[in-house]
Amino acid sequence: MFNIILLFSLDFDSTLFKMRKLILVFLLPFLAYACQSDPEAKKIVDQSIAAHGGDLFKTATIAFDFRDKHYEIFKSPERYRYVREFTDSIGKVRDVLDNDGFTRTVNGEKVEVTTKMANAYSNSVNSVAYFAFLPYGLNDEAVNKKYLGDTELEGASYHLVKATFSNYGGGEDHNDEFLYWINKENFRVDFFAYSYETDGGGVRFRKAVQTHEVSGLLLQDYENYKVEDKNTPLESVEELYKSGELELLSEIRLENIEVISSR
User: Fold this and answer.
1) What would the mean pLDDT of 112-127 be, rounded to a whole number?
2) How far is CA 146 from CA 31, 71, 72, 151, 202, in A?
3) Average model confidence (pLDDT) across the chain
4) Strands ordered across the beta sheet of 247-252
5) Spatial separation of the C-alpha atoms in residues 195 and 101, rounded to whole Å
6) Burial code of 28-60, b = ≥16 C-beta within 10 A, e = fewer?
7) Could you tell me what percent of the chain has a pLDDT over 70?
């Protein structure tokens, strides 16, 4: 509809015509995204984000320990700042990823890292932040959501929502796919699965095993299961889990969780 309005508003001024054609070209990626949105999926995700803390995610800085590393995570629609600190053989390392890029300091001194390593460190920090804050982030512009219907798992009823990412704004991992089991009663994310292509690719399934309620936010620990065949469609993972065919790979546990500031 927006395309049609633009076309019919053109006049006979050739300069104006060229300008409006240029505007239309720039708008096409956003129009394509809008056409892919699923109102039912967005409605369910909105309710899930609200159930996990809603707008509090936009103003809170969350600190926690995960696998011998300390994290401080802040993410609003306009700004983000992810901090990771740990000590190893080279000393006390502090990684910061924000809107301005990635920086690393060792024992308080900034060190230069190659682009390849900076990307690897950034992806690692970003991954922890993304999973810790679920389902916050599922309404980002690059996320395309689709409602797949309902299902039953471990005696509870769930909405099933699939998320993919647009090339425009989707980052290096825009080919990843996610599937979320959102509880029909409390709208919490009890299970999710995802496929990825980095490091050879694979498929994972996670089950929430503990919920931490801190200052109005819900953060969760998970059991992390491996799917043997990395080409397995996400829609098949539920049946594999029910039949006991998934391998427990690790546990995702957040410790010493604290809301350290509000903005």
Assistant:
1) 93
2) 17, 32, 31, 15, 22
3) 85
4) 143-153, 156-165, 177-183, 189-196, 202-214, 217-226, 247-252
5) 26
6) eeeeebeeeebeebbebbebbbebbbeebbbeb
7) 82
